[in-house]
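dude i think i finally got it to work??
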Amino acid sequence: MIATCAPLIAAVRTNCHISDARHAREMTMCTYLLEMRELFRWERGLPLGAPVPQRDVGAWMTEREALWVQLEDAPHVPLPLPDRAVDPYAVDDANRALSPHGLVYGAGIGRFGKPQFFVADLARAERRDGLTVLVAGREYARDLSAAPAASRGGTIYVRLESLQRWLWERAEAWLGKCNEGALKAALDGYGFAEDRHAAIARMAEAEAETLILHEIGEGRAGALLGPEWERMLAGLARRRTELFVRAVRDHLADCLVTLPALLDRGAGPSLHFWFANLQGLRLQLFPRIGHAYARWCASEDAPLRAAIADGAEHWQRVARGALALHAGAESAAEDALDALAADRHTAF
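look at this
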């Protein structure tokens, strides 16, 4: 199966290298080293948490960075399908060629304009809320920053292998401190103390559903906000502005779909994990939800349900306000959005 699709997989790997060559230096040094360590583990087929020999990874990094120097200015290569070559973003064409072989392909633009590509085994496919959901298993091509989930058009992609590796990184970081809080509660809920690898596997399956719910929420938010939202997002040049705009839509999506669904299902570990990831700007913008979580931990559902319902209305208003500012401010649009982010009435 893989031999049949080898030329296409090789092209995707090349495009992953080109994307990394152009964008890897934008990471902080800490993030870069962590991502490179995990990419090394993936390429060598090492299990989660396996020790990484410093000498080996150092030599590998030197080789990889030399390759990036060669590829930084190269254009992305077309995908060689059996009947023709297509653009690397021609996802539907690629998947028509790969699906008979039990494979799935994904391509898109991630955070801060970084192109992302992958090829993987297709674990399952389903329809949810009028959308196609493709769940990927073992991966054969990926870039440095492998997003566990994304949506493109009417399709949601969830990558179980990348999700497991990201979850393991979170758990590894927690092991260095063993702090009380939402992440510990989530890990406890999945039995991490008893069997770490089995817990991460269970966690990946459950959190894949959370990711699907979030992407469904993104779709509903997109229907409310219209195509101008994506055009606004694509045109942003400042990282802090993009982070704000993404945070607003994330909150809207989760208040519309993710959080109500998890609450209704009684998905305690997934709720704990959602709040474990409520950090930085997203937490600054939505302090009420954090306070409501503390009440929920004390067995009070009502404050959290109220915060979610009110949040759906609030974040829709903020998102529409952002669109209006962007449309009216022209060359000063990002200044206007930054002012909106700093307005004390934006936080909720």
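The longest strand covers residues 115-128.
im so relieved honestly
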